[in-house]
């Protein structure tokens, strides 16, 4: 009898897995957005600590209502490109706190890189890992020389792709396409790598990537990026004004600029990045709602996306501080306040667009995406600085 009951329970779990996830999401959203500012600061920080140490929740890569439970078990713990940029975003937030989160940061890094020889435990095969490398090099808790083998591995992967294709594709399996995501994920790292290890050619690679996308992937009339473009024909592809795509363009510009400003020289590149950053942030202002909402598709006022909102809040906050720009600061504050309204009572930020499925195919799910947590905390920390 006991065996029959156990079998029945297993069947219920397997068949009802998707419904169970939906129920937990509903439960987590009870009393959402009711944290005071002080509670928000404390609880989002606690979530950050937990995810750095124990791992962040998985971001699902499809919207299927028929989740394969067995596949979930088989895939548990596997690294994907989605994992890299989620953990990179958490590191960005942790880097704002310095020594206070040193143990948590070291815990996350140790999941990826062996401390004895500085090599990857699992060598990355996609360029998304560059964003994680950038945040590792931007913090104070790794010895850049000890961890150079891992950094070299990713840098060489990017350079090989550039040598083969002129600029770097998002995915080697579809090398004819350039995605806006790529600018945000690789350019800051290439510049950081160049400055850390005295390899100036990587600054040229980063600037070539940015210049090419500015020329062929941006709507010249409104200065807003398309999702992608085709390399040979330079025809724009996908939606113009995908919210998180706008954020990737902004991150690529702002973090590249931020990194260069910490170095001597490269004045031409600094001026160019500053000009492009202001051009885009000024162009995007009118597409942000009065309450700070950023939509999944900004040009048509669709549904909110807290990940795009958090990423852009970080960019506006940094540029506000750099330029002493009150308008940017007010925008960043509105956006962080909006994020507080979609924060669960346990401090988890909700209502982010799920993983994008391809050119023009955007997830209909609004769910927990850890990158929203990282960027929102980083944005708030900048705004708190005097």
Write a brief structural summary.
It contains 15 helices and 6 strands. The protein is mainly alpha-helical and 386 residues long. Helix 9 (180-197) runs parallel beside helix 11 and helix 13 runs parallel beside helix 15 (370-384).
Please characterize this protein's 3D structure.
The structure is a single chain. This protein is mainly alpha-helical and 386 residues long. 58% of the residues lie in helices and 5% in strands. The chain contains 15 helices and six strands. It has helices spanning 2-15, 17-28, 37-54, 69-75, 81-95, 102-112, 129-138, 148-165, 180-197, 201-216, 243-261, 267-284, 306-323, 326-340, 370-384, and strands at 177-179, 218-219, 224-230, 236-240, 352-353, 366-367. The strands form two sheets. Strands 1, 2, 3 and 4 form a four-stranded antiparallel beta sheet that branches. A two-stranded antiparallel sheet has the order 5-6. Strand 2 (218-219) and strand 3 (224-230) form a beta hairpin. The radius of gyration is 21 Å and the shape is globular. The protein starts with a helix and ends with a helix.
Using the alpha-carbon principal axes, give the shape: globular
The biggest sheet amounts to:
4 strands, antiparallel
Q: How large a portion of the residues is in β-strands, by DSSP E?
A: 5-15%
What is the distance, rounded to the nearest whole angstrom, between the alpha carbons of the first and last residues? 67 Å
Mean pLDDT: 91
Order of helix and strand elements from N to C terminus: HHHHHHHHEHHEEEHHHHEEH
Number of helical stretches of at least 4 residues: 15
Structural class: mainly alpha
Uncertain runs are 65-78
Helix content: 55-70%
């Amino acid at each position: 009898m006991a065996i029959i009951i156990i079998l029945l329970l297993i069947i219920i779990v397997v068949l009802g897995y998707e419904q169970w996830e939906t129920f937990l999401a509903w439960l987590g959203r009870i009393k959402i957005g009711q944290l005071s500012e002080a509670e928000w600061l404390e609880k989002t920080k606690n979530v950050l600590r937990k995810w750095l140490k124990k791992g962040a929740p998985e971001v699902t890569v499809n919207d299927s209502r028929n989740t394969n439970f067995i596949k979930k078990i088989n895939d548990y713990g596997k690294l994907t490109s989605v994992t890299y940029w989620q953990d990179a975003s958490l590191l960005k937030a942790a880097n704002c706190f310095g020594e206070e989160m040193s143990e948590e940061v070291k815990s996350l890094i140790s999941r990826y890189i062996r401390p004895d020889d500085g090599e990857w435990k699992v060598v990355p095969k996609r360029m998304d890992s560059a964003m994680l490398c950038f945040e590792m090099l931007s913090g104070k808790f790794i010895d850049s020389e000890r961890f150079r083998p891992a950094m070299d591995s990713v840098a060489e992967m990017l350079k090989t792709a550039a040598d083969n294709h002129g600029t770097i594709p998002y995915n080697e399996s579809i090398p004819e396409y350039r995605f806006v995501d790529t600018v945000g994920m690789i350019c800051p790292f290439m510049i950081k790598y160049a400055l850390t290890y005295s390899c100036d050619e990587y600054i040229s690679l980063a600037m070539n990537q940015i210049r090419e996308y500015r020329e062929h992937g941006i709507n010249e009339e409104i200065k807003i990026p398309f999702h992608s473009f085709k390399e040979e024909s330079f025809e724009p592809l996908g939606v113009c004004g995908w919210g998180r795509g706008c954020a990737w363009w902004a991150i690529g510009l702002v973090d590249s600029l931020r990194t260069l400003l910490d170095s001597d020289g490269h004045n031409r590149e600094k001026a160019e990045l500053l000009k492009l950053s202001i051009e885009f942030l000024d162009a995007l202002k009118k597409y942000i709602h009065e309450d700070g909402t950023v939509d999944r598709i900004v040009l048509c006022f669709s549904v909110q996306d807290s990940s795009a909102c958090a990423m852009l809040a970080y960019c506006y906050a940094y540029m506000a501080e750099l330029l002493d720009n009150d308008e940017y600061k007010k925008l960043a504050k509105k956006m962080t306040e909006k994020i507080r309204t979609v924060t669960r009572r346990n401090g988890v930020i909700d209502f982010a667009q799920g993983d994008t499925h391809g050119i023009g195919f955007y997830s209909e799910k609004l769910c927990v995406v850890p990158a929203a947590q990282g960027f929102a905390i980083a944005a708030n920390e900048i705004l708190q600085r005097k």
